[in-house]
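Whether sequence alone determines local backbone shape is best considered at the level of individual chains. In the encoding step, the backbone of a single protein was reduced to a row of integers, each denoting a local shape. For completeness, the protein is quoted in full, as a sequence line and a line of structure tokens.
***
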Amino acid sequence: MTCTTLEKQNVDLVSLNQALKDCVATQDIEKAIGLAIQRQKALIEIFEAAENNPSKLENLEKLATETLECLSQEKILLRAQSSKKRNDFLLRKSAIQAYMAPIAA
């Protein structure tokens, strides 16, 4: 594999990471799943190509670190969105209970 091909794959992976992060932020889950599968395939191709070229191990380490950071950020964002949705639900539930309390009494 040539250096330019590996660099192109790295650029593609970075763009996939960014697109996936945007999908998670906008809660477009179906598109995010598709992008996650594409990212997985891209990572497999990059790591398989790098196996044949040990001189690219530094690049692989950097790439792996960046991808893990993206995964961590996605997980944090999803957890925050989940907490917000739960809090919104609890607020609505409390409001309904407060509204229904005088009627039930």
Summary: Residues 57-104 form the longest helix (48 residues). The mean pLDDT is 81. The radius of gyration is 21 Å.
